[in-house]
């Protein structure tokens, strides 16, 4: 058997040819041209979020850093300036939604979890408008487990709800390498078994032919996955008889073998190279002997081609992986008329990530001692890497995490974001560098597919056109009608910031719709919309299109398994309960002492304020129509009021606590102090939230913020009043992330009475290394002893990813 060896030494952007016959060469050039057009017109964006810790309790704050990259080489994106981040509850509905202003692909934010939040698995979703062109599969998802300390009993209350059932029985799928079984050619067949809860399940079984003769056996070796070899015979069919770990059994038909065909096999066991083998059965070889076939290797946004003649039933070639980009590569075999016949994925690990060196001034520290950390980032060549990084420090005894289950910037951007479906234990394939782990990663490549593009759609140019344009800023839009409810085209409309700023003008289109685009404003900002008709009169009706988060597709990226063990969550919740008890006893970590603030403005009672445009420019306005009727008002406001949670204060009364100052807020009802639950939910016109410094207009009573509740006038009906000519609005702008609070114990003005039981010791979302690749920072330990864990992740200006874990002791 003749063996041809092709060593792929060059890697030129989008096209490299080797000895094309004329006709085949033109066809392949056309194929590569179409791929190039697709990649140019469909530049991808990916989002990744690093979180401060793996689990939370109701009442906690979830901190995160967002990285948005573009293209196949993961460079920080300049496409989009807006990132949408949603907190999705256990009922698959959006609980909270914020917009972050991206600066060269970077942003950070947080979610305040209400005390009343039910325990369970929540998901954080992040996406740009541009990602919507690829559908929901392009969005970032992360499952976070939230527990509750309400009525906490350890361990009895830690009985977890059973995972939702996705199907009535366990299932398995079989995937012949290259795509097809061919009679007379021994082929690798990979498989993956999924249990009723959507997670991997162990399976074993046998393969029998149509005469019920056993031909081979198999068993899963990692997360329900494994493989076996099968040499199908012409005219025979095969089926697998499976036995699952839960005791159930089933029979599944394997794909029918082709009577004539080719098989593409890739051996990726070697670190420096991958060996490709093309095998034709006798019938196919005799029919196509001497014809030219082309192998296309696609990696990191580029394609290399190698053409060879079928002058032997078996052709082999080697791919030098150092010429490829780290991540998923595809090897596709094309026919003489440039049609894809077989395809195989392989993972390339070139160890070209950013090397992060973390050094502390000590190996062992005392409680509350200052820690000095120095970071040094180097690229593969050993040169300084200028980049952006984020860092979390946790008390590992309070929030331990299974290393294999971690979702990291490397596992996400290089692996899971390019595969179909949910990948369990993604960091296993990077944390474990053994030969067994590499083999299991190769089986993953055989079973979970590739979502970046499909050759058939590329060649037929059937990909849908770009429907969603990248957002460069915020948008305010709506519709203008006359008093007869007919839309007005060409109506002049003005957008006026209430607190001052430039006035913007626009004109409605043929459907009466207006758009103000590329805006940039923070939090809830108050505007007034004014519209006139063609005669310059304001006898118009204005409708504002209230911005809503993207709907959650049922079952989208659904992960039903918990990333945190029952034991870990129980310990975390017990610590959280102790921390809340310490707060109730001593106040926050700073103690009860507040720095005196002198306010020159006299204290005046609040007047009944106008809806949307607060007399004192509230930070947030909630309207009565947005509050569910029935039950205490404090319960209905939980989760609606930003940066505020409600705690008991004797009897059944609840008081609002400012999450920023961690102290009670002032409550004013129609200008007079009162209790929040003295107001019926159906009597509320507006609830205005004033945070410092805006709340300082109320003097000392406003130091910790004010809730201004305005009730409806008795003559006012509960339905909305149509806006004629002028419409005040308060759209949500870019979210202003809160600064993570870290105590400074070398400051003698701070009390030490309260135990410092923090689980997140330090969170710094933006660390920028200098020209020498260096950065430094400091913080103070808490009272917990044991191992503290530092995680630093990020990306340099060349798109190289970096992650490092560092641990030290506290005694």
Strand order of the largest sheet: 3-10-9-6-7
Low-confidence stretches: 1-22, 154-167, 591-616, 714-722
Termini gap: 68 Å
User: Could you estimate the helical fraction of the residues in percent?
Assistant: 10-25%
Strand content: 35-45%
Q: Structural class given helices, strands, pairing?
A: mainly beta
List how many beta strands DSSP finds: 46
Mean pLDDT: 84
Rg (CA only): 31 Å
The largest pleated sheet is described as: 5 strands, mixed
Which term fits the overall shape?
A: globular
Tally of separate helices: 8
The gist of it:
This protein is mainly beta and 811 residues long.
Could you please describe the fold and organization of this structure?
This protein is mainly β. 10% of the residues lie in helices and 37% in strands. It contains eight helices and 46 strands. The strands form twelve sheets. It has a five-stranded mixed sheet. A five-stranded mixed sheet has the order 26-46-45-28-43, with no helix packed on it. Strand 18 (262-267) and strand 19 form a beta hairpin. It is globular and about 95 Å long.
């Amino acid at each position: 058997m003749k063996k041809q060896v092709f060593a792929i030494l060059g890697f030129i952007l989008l096209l490299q040819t080797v000895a094309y016959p004329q006709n085949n060469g033109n066809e392949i050039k056309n194929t590569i041209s179409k791929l190039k057009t697709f990649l140019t017109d469909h530049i991808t964006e990916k989002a990744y979020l690093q979180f401060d810790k793996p689990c939370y309790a109701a009442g906690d704050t979830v901190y995160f850093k967002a990285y948005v990259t573009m293209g196949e080489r993961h460079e920080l994106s300049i496409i989009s300036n807006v990132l949408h981040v949603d907190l999705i509850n256990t009922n698959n509905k959006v609980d909270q939604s914020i917009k972050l202003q991206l600066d060269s692909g970077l942003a950070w934010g947080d979610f305040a979890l209400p005390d009343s939040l039910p325990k369970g698995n929540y998901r954080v979703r992040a996406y740009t408008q541009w990602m919507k062109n690829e559908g929901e599969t392009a969005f970032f998802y992360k499952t976070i487990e939230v527990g509750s300390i309400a009525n906490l009993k350890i361990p009895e209350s830690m009985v977890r709800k059973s995972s939702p059932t996705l199907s009535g029985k366990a299932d398995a799928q079989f995937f012949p390498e290259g795509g097809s079984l061919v009679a007379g050619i021994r082929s690798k067949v990979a498989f993956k078994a999924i249990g009723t809860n959507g997670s991997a399940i162990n399976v074993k079984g046998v393969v029998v032919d149509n005469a019920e003769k056993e031909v081979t056996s198999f068993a899963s070796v990692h997360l329900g996955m494994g493989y076996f070899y099968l040499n199908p015979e012409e005219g025979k069919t095969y089926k697998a008889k499976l036995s699952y770990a839960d005791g159930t059994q089933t029979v599944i038909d394997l794909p029918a073998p082709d009577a004539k065909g080719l098989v593409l096999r890739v051996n990726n066991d070697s670190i420096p190279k991958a060996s490709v083998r093309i095998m034709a059965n006798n019938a196919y070889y005799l029919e196509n002997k001497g014809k030219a076939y082309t192998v296309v290797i696609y990696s990191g946004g580029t394609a290399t081609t190698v053409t060879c003649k079928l002058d032997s039933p078996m052709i082999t070639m080697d791919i030098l992986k150092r010429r490829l980009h780290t991540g998923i590569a595809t090897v596709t075999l094309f026919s003489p008329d440039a049609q894809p016949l077989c395809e195989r994925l392989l993972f390339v690990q070139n160890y070209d990530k950013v090397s992060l060196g973390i050094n502390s001034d000590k190996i062992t520290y005392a409680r509350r001692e200052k820690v000095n950390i120095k970071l040094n980032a180097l690229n593969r060549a050993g040169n300084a890497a200028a980049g952006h990084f984020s860092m979390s420090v946790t008390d590992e005894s309070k929030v331990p995490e299974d290393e294999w289950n971690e979702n990291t910037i490397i596992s996400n951007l290089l692996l899971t974001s390019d595969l179909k479906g949910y990948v369990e234990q993604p960091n296993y394939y990077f944390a474990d560098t053994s030969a067994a782990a590499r083999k299991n990663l190769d089986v993953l490549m055989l079973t979970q597919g590739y979502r970046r593009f499909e050759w058939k759609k590329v060649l037929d140019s059937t990909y849908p056109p770009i429907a969603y344009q990248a957002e460069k800023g915020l948008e305010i839009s709506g519709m203008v009608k006359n008093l007869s409810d007919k839309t007005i085209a060409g109506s002049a409309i003005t957008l006026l910031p209430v607190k001052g700023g430039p006035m913007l003008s626009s004109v409605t289109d043929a459907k009466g719709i207006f758009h103000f685009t590329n805006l940039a404003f923070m939090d809830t900002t108050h505007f007034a919309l004014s519209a006139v008709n063609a005669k310059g009169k304001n006898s118009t009706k204005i409708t504002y299109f209230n911005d809503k988060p993207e709907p959650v597709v049922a079952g989208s990226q659904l992960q039903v398994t918990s990333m945190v063990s029952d034991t870990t969550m129980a310990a975390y919740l017990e610590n959280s309960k102790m921390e809340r008890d310490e707060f109730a006893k001593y106040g926050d970590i700073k103690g009860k002492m507040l720095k005196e603030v002198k306010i020159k403005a006299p204290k005046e009672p609040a007047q009944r304020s106008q809806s949307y445009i607060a007399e004192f420019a509230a930070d947030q306005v909630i309207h009565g129509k947005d509050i569910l009727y029935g039950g205490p008002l404090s319960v209905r406001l939980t989760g609606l009021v930003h940066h505020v949670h409600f705690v008991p204060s004797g009897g059944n009364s609840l008081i609002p606590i400012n999450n920023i100052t961690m102290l009670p807020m002032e409550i004013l009802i129609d200008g007079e102090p009162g209790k929040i639950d003295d107001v019926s939910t159906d009597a509320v016109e507006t609830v205005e939230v004033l945070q410092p410094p805006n709340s300082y207009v109320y003097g000392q009573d406003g130091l910790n913020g004010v809730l201004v509740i305005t009730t409806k006038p008795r003559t006012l009906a509960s339905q909305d009043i149509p806006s004629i000519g002028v419409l005040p609005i308060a759209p949500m702008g870019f979210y202003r992330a809160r600064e993570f609070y870290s105590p400074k114990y070398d400051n003698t003005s701070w009390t030490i009475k309260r135990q410092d039981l923090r689980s997140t010791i330090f969170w710094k979302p933006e660390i920028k290394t200098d020209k020498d690749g260096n950065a430094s920072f400091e913080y103070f330990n808490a009272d917990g002893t044991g191992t503290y864990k530092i995680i630093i992740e990020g990306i340099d200006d060349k798109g190289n990813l970096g992650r490092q874990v560092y641990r030290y002791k506290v005694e």
